[in-house]
Amino acid sequence: MQKVEPANIIAIVKNPDTVNDFKAQGLIIRQADYNDYDTLKQAFRGAEKALQISTIGVDINTAKQQEKNVVNAIAENNVKHIVYTSMVQARPNTIFQGTQTHNHTEELIRTTKIPYTFFRNSMYMEAIPELIGNALQTNEIRYPSGSGKVSFVSRTDIAEAITNVLTESTHDNKAYEITGSTAYSFAELAKAISAEKSINVNHTDISDMDFREELISYQMPVEVVDLLVSMANGIKAGEFSYIDSTLEKLLGRKSLDLNEFIKGL
Fold first, then answer.
1. Confidence check: pLDDT of 23 > 80
2. Helix (H/G/I), strand (E/B), else coil: 73
3. Which of 79, 64, 165, 77 is nearest to 114 (CA)?
4. Which one of 98, 145, 188, 214 has the largest count of C-beta atoms within 10 Å of its C-beta?
5. Minimal CA–CA distance to 60: which of 121, 104, 9, 4?
6. With pLDDT > 70 as the criterion, what percentage of the chain qualifies?
7. Predicted TM-score (pTM) of this structure
8. What is the pLDDT of residue 58?
C-alpha cells in the first residue's frame, strides 16, 4: 500500500545514476556526499522528515564525522523529525566499533532537540551469506564467534517498519530495539542451514588470528579487517543476542523467520 506520493519523497544519494528507476517513478533525486557538508546542507532543503541511514565508513573517526555532517545538515534545515538506523542496544564502550559510532550519533541527534526515532537494528539476515562464506560448498562455517548468539533481522521488515514510523506521528523520542524473535549461535545457524538445505554444515570457531589472516588474504584494507574482527568479538560477547518484540508490534504481524530466509540462500 502506497502511503506517500513519490513526488513528496526526496532520495539523497552519492551517485544519482544508480537510482534512475526511482527517478522514473517520480521521486526527487538529490546528490550529496557524507564527506561534503555543503552538498548535504543543500540536499535536505525543504525536507519535513529525514531518514538517516548510518554510514558504512569503517574508520571510526571518519564514520563519526560523516554522521555528524548529516546530523548538522538536518538540523540546519529545521527538519521536524529524524529517524536514524542505529545498532541494537547502542551504548558507549562496546566491542564492536560500529556500535560505538551509532551511540555517538544518537547523542548528537539528541543535542539538536529535534524529535527522533532510533531504530536500533540487530544484525541483518542479508549479511549471513558473507558471514558463512562458502559454507554451502565446504560444509563448514569458519567464524570466531564462540557461543555468542545473534538475533538476526530482515532488512525488508525493517524498511516496512520505518515506513510506518515515518508516516505516523506517535514515535517521537523513541529508541526501538529491532531484533528477530530468536537469537542463534553460529552452531545453531549451521544446524538450521543443514536442515533447510539437506546438507551437513558445521561451525568451526576459529581464532581471531586465523580470522584476521584469512581476511587479509582477501586483500582487505586493515581498517575493514579491524572492523570485522571487532564485530566477531562483539558477537562472542553477546552484543547482538538481545531479543525484543518491538519490530512485530510496528509491523502488526510476525517478522521473517530465519529458517524462511535460509530457504532462499
1. yes
2. helix
3. 79
4. 145
5. 104
6. 100
7. 0.95
8. 79
